[in-house]
Amino acid sequence: MSRMSLWVALVALFLPGFVAAADEPALIETFVPPKRIKFNPPKFPHREYVRGQEGWAIVNFMVGPDGRTYDETVARASAAPFGRAALRATRSARYEPAKFDGRDIDASQVVRITFEIDGQVGARRQFIAHLKRFQRARDEGDVAAMEEQVRSLEANTNNLYESAFLNVSRYQMLERGDDDVAKLQALNEATYMDKGRGFLPDNFMTSMLLVRLQLELRLNYIGEARQSIATLRERELSPKQSDSIDRLEAAVNDYVDRDDVFSHRHQIDRDDRAYIPLERKAFSIDRVDGDVAELRLHCSRGYRGFIHKPETLYRLHNDEGSCLLQVIGTPGSSFTLTEHPAG
């Protein structure tokens, strides 16, 4: 069967399907994830504090059988100083190790650390003025003025509230173009920034998450799409929206379960890495434009690291659980990740 985009296949996949239950009894496995027992809050970067600049960082890492962290990496940060501070705090943390059938094992973890300044709430007058100018330029379809105001917003963004609206503006500037990756990046930043904070109006936040989901499906980012579906399910949805999510999730499951490969294109960011949640236990990397040097797998029940070899099919064990793939190489390098069916 030839490769096909999930976005193109969705119409057919919305037809109801049937999956027969296996006759063999399911194996019962006992897995207990790591539990944090010591964590010293990170120090707020001094220069950013003096400037009144808030921020955040997301750190991926492994917890070993000894309860110590290793292979800590900043997956995303609003600014590099926040990433460094979060990384230092993560490295000093201690955990009760994960257990699998009574054995201490390696297990992946991810933490989001927010740096906030007491009493700093809402957007400042200067930021609001630039935001209004951006909206006027958008209403008039003046692309040059939109780009100018986004640069002004970037220069005048200090707190998390402003950052959420900055990234919404970045998306709105890009939405008429063809760069779906850049659109998704802007929406990711906006929705990550707002997560649980209520910066964006509730209905608007839901609409942004739905657009984010559409972009992920168009790009064939299946793992990310699952995460967006889970986030949307935590929100108050209309019956129509809830039904659409049900049908969409069924379509995604059907697509992944097909005996076919599916591919998605990625780019290594300025921190030398790309992060991709895997849907299947077999994958390959090809069509590399640039340099891919190393692969690391952070799995819920294990860890692997190895040098990338072109034209290689990598296979994982089923008992390793869900896995996040880190692709390490030269910033700006792009590649195609193809996920293969089992067998």
Could you characterize what this model shows?
With 343 residues, the protein is α+β, with helices and mostly antiparallel strands. 39% of the residues lie in helices and 27% in strands. It contains ten helices and 16 strands. It has helices at 6-13, 46-51, 80-92, 125-140, 143-155, 160-174, 180-194, 202-218, 222-233, 239-257; strands spanning 31-32, 35-38, 55-63, 69-77, 94-96, 98-100, 103-105, 107-115, 262-267, 273-277, 282-289, 292-299, 302-307, 314-315, 323-329, 334-340. A four-stranded antiparallel sheet has the order 9-16-11-14, with no helix packed on it. Helix 5 (143-155) runs antiparallel to helix 6 (160-174) and helix 9 (222-233) packs antiparallel against helix 10 (239-257). The chain starts with 5 loop residues before the first helix and ends with a strand. The model is unreliable at 1-29 (pLDDT under 50).
Strand content: 25-35%
Strand order of the largest sheet: 9-16-11-14
Mean pLDDT: 86
Helix count from the secondary structure assignment: 10
Shape: globular
Low-confidence regions: 1-29
Share in helix:
25-40%
- Oligomer state of the chains in this structure: single chain
Judged by helices, strands and strand pairing, the structural class is alpha+beta
SSE blueprint and pairings:
Elements (H helix, E strand, L loop, with lengths): L5 H8 L17 E2 L2 E4 L7 H6 L3 E9 L5 E9 L2 H13 L1 E3 L1 E3 L2 E3 L1 E9 L9 H16 L2 H13 L4 H15 L5 H15 L7 H17 L3 H12 L5 H19 L4 E6 L5 E5 L4 E8 L2 E8 L2 E6 L6 E2 L7 E7 L4 E7 L3
Antiparallel strand pairs: 1-6, 2-5, 3-4, 3-8, 6-7, 9-16, 10-15, 11-14, 11-16, 12-13, 12-15
